[in-house]
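Budget justification aside, the reviewers requested a transparent look at the raw inputs and outputs of the sequence design task funded under Objective 1. We therefore reproduce one unedited record. The lines immediately below are the structure tokens for a 115-residue chain.
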């Protein structure tokens, strides 16, 4: 479960930003998860709540946006969205000549704080 490590690193960034803005508390966090990041949203939520205990972000609301699995198909020359990250065939032409466009990471998009 790499979600715990991702949450620990995210919390470091969140606390750093909160302190720079003299926050008393972080109330909400928006995170975008890449389609090919292998992050399980339920595990991410559980781990996030766990690592936030005793910090400025304890009890904050976590919003997770899951990015779609978008690829560029060389065969039909168009962007396509895969129904599953595990199926690597174009839904238009069935080609396997796809280039991943979707992100494979995790980004903190926005924080809401109380000053």
């Amino acid at each position: 479960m790499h979600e715990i490590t991702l949450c620990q690193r995210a919390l470091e960034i969140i606390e750093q930003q909160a302190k720079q803005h003299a926050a008393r508390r972080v109330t909400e966090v928006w995170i975008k998860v890449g389609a090919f990041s292998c992050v399980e949203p339920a595990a991410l939520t559980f781990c996030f709540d766990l690592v936030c205990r005793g910090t400025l972000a304890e009890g904050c609301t976590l919003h997770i946006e899951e990015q779609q699995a978008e690829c560029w198909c060389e065969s039909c020359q168009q962007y396509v969205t895969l129904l599953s990250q595990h199926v690597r065939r174009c839904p238009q032409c069935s080609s396997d000549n796809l280039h991943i466009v979707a992100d494979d990471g995790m980004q903190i998009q926005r924080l809401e704080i109380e000053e």
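The chain has a mean pLDDT of 90. The helical segments are 3-20, 41-52. Computational costs for records of this kind are itemized in the attached budget.
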